[in-house]
UniProtKB/TrEMBL annotation:
<feature type="binding site">
    <location>
        <begin position="297"/>
        <end position="301"/>
    </location>
    <ligand>
        <name>4-CDP-2-C-methyl-D-erythritol 2-phosphate</name>
    </ligand>
</feature>
<comment type="pathway">
    <text>Isoprenoid biosynthesis; isopentenyl diphosphate biosynthesis via DXP pathway; isopentenyl diphosphate from 1-deoxy-D-xylulose 5-phosphate: step 4/6.</text>
</comment>
<keyword id="KW-0808">Transferase</keyword>
<dbReference type="GO" id="GO:0046872">
    <property type="term" value="F:metal ion binding"/>
</dbReference>
<feature type="site" description="Transition state stabilizer">
    <location>
        <position position="16"/>
    </location>
</feature>
<dbReference type="InterPro" id="IPR003526">
    <property type="entry name" value="MECDP_synthase"/>
</dbReference>
<dbReference type="GO" id="GO:0008685">
    <property type="term" value="F:2-C-methyl-D-erythritol 2,4-cyclodiphosphate synthase activity"/>
</dbReference>
<comment type="similarity">
    <text>Belongs to the IspF family.</text>
</comment>
<feature type="site" description="Transition state stabilizer">
    <location>
        <position position="270"/>
    </location>
</feature>
<feature type="binding site">
    <location>
        <begin position="292"/>
        <end position="294"/>
    </location>
    <ligand>
        <name>4-CDP-2-C-methyl-D-erythritol 2-phosphate</name>
    </ligand>
</feature>
<feature type="domain" description="2-C-methyl-D-erythritol 2,4-cyclodiphosphate synthase">
    <location>
        <begin position="237"/>
        <end position="390"/>
    </location>
</feature>
<keyword id="KW-0479">Metal-binding</keyword>
<feature type="binding site">
    <location>
        <position position="375"/>
    </location>
    <ligand>
        <name>4-CDP-2-C-methyl-D-erythritol 2-phosphate</name>
    </ligand>
</feature>
<keyword id="KW-0511">Multifunctional enzyme</keyword>
<comment type="pathway">
    <text>Isoprenoid biosynthesis; isopentenyl diphosphate biosynthesis via DXP pathway; isopentenyl diphosphate from 1-deoxy-D-xylulose 5-phosphate: step 2/6.</text>
</comment>
<keyword id="KW-0548">Nucleotidyltransferase</keyword>
<dbReference type="InterPro" id="IPR020555">
    <property type="entry name" value="MECDP_synthase_CS"/>
</dbReference>
Amino acid sequence: MKKYTAIILAAGQGKRMLAGRNKQFLKIGDQPLICHTLSVFDQDEWCEELILVTNERERSQMEELLKEYPLRQSVHLVDGGAERQDSVFAGLEAVRNRELPVFIHDGARPFVPQELLHELSVTAYEKKAALLAVPVTDTIKQKSNHGLDTLDRSTLWAAQTPQAFSYDLIYEAHERARKSRYYGTDDASLVERLDKEVAIVKGSYDNIKLTTPEDLHKAQAYLSNQRNGKVGDGPMFRVGQGFDVHQLTEGRPCIIGGIEIPYEKGLLGHSDADVLLHTIADACLGAIGEGDIGKHFPDTDPAFKDADSGKLLQHVWDIVTEQGYELGNMDCTVIAQAPKMAPYIEQIRENIASLLRVEPGRINVKATTTEKLGFTGRKEGIAAQAVVLLQNNQHS
Ligand SMILES: Nc1ccn([C@@H]2O[C@H](COP(=O)(O)OP(=O)(O)OP(=O)(O)O)[C@@H](O)[C@H]2O)c(=O)n1
Ligand SMILES: C[C@](O)(CO)[C@H](O)COP(=O)(O)O
């Protein structure tokens, strides 16, 4: 094991994120950005000491967050400075074991893979200074008084963090920079000014720094990729199917697809027993791997007694869309000997479209009898099935 100290920077203002507050507190998936970043290091056995540089005014908020999202190891909180470089220096001053390499990492980079931390640590032990960086994929233009120049892309690398250094080297580099009032945009540049070699460890294009609002979408998509085990690029498609049955009984309204259909009997259930909307909700939950409606709205919970299934479906749809999915299309079949469904099909289709906030063209609703066979044929109950295709464009 090649142990190291990690200094995580979170004392910025996140101005470019336009969120009106420090981006470190914005929730990405199930936890705030800074908690994702901290937990990468917390879960790495090689990380010996964890220092979190925070804005003095946000210190108590950060302490609360650490209580709400507890980590295995203790976190040493340090007040940062006006510029990123001042915050790094404050972190360096707080390091206890100065024999270990120091990793300096942006709190705004939550997706650094653990294997890269290890590769970086091994390199830092060997070379004293190393950073993660990726080859530039765009053509880079330099604007000057004479016009534009095109740089030789084959020599260009985009610097990431962590950047890792032997303690004495990075401390000296920072002290020298402070004396000459030099401010660099990363820590490796301060070591380069000492004419010392800095090694590159090839980073990952997933190790993004969340800087602008667009980066939040990328981060959400990345997390949902991880949850769903997606491999590769491009839009992600997920398919789900649903099936449900409710018994027909006297004294209940017959609600199908959110529309009350005049009939001598109605559907029996804990909620309003809307067999079609339940089926669609199940298909949507199935597509995103979130179980079924029984898991989300247990029929033992009095809160859902006679519940409007339209509201339940909208709640399910919020879960789907929060994960970045849109409806590709949906095809549903109501299996009923009676009542006659044809007069209500268009109304049902429009109602489902309005519940899901999509155009009706993405939805098909049809009905069939079972030629008087089985429980549906004997008019004892009504069944429904649905197939749903979801698309996540944030993956492209
Ligand atoms: N005085 C500062 C400035 C920045 N940072 C941290 O350095 C990292 C990289 O900086 P950046 O992404 O630019 O974050 P902000 O400075 O918060 O963003 P902005 O420049 O848009 O205000 C962030 O984790 C940020 O919290 C810091 O600790 N102290
Ligand atoms: C350190 C860094 O993340 C390397 O790419 C970057 O330079 C930080 O810049 P910022 O303007 O402070 O976000």
